Amino acid sequence: MAAQAKTIKIKLVGSPIGRVSLQKRAVAALGLKKMNQVVEKPDSDAFRGFVKKYPHLLALVD
User: Fold this and answer.
1) CB 58 within 8 A of CB 10
2) What are phi and psi of 10, to 5 degrees?
3) Minimal CA–CA distance to 60: which of 9, 21, 12?
């Protein structure tokens, strides 16, 4: 069987309303549209960097 790629779950915890357009685009690029929405993305440095750069908007879900 093929090994499954590891994924992380990212949750939108802060509203992008009133934020700079760069932050709004980052949230949209992750596919997040609603508060408390969770998306699964591949576990890579790029996606972990999104969460680390915008901790007021994003959080990792266990």
Assistant:
1) yes
2) -115, 135
3) 9
DSSP lists the bridge partners of residue 11 as 38, 59
Domains of the chain and CATH, by start: 7-61 (3.30.1390.20)
φ, ψ of residue 39 to 5 degrees: the values are: -125, 150
- What are the residue ranges in the chain where pLDDT is below 50? none
Report the candidate in 7, 8, 27, 9 with the shortest Cα–Cα distance to residue 17: 27
Q: What does the pLDDT read at residue 38?
A: 98
The number of C-alpha atoms within 13 Å of 28 and in the hemisphere containing its C-beta is 9
Q: Output the six-digit token pair for 28.
A: 């949209």
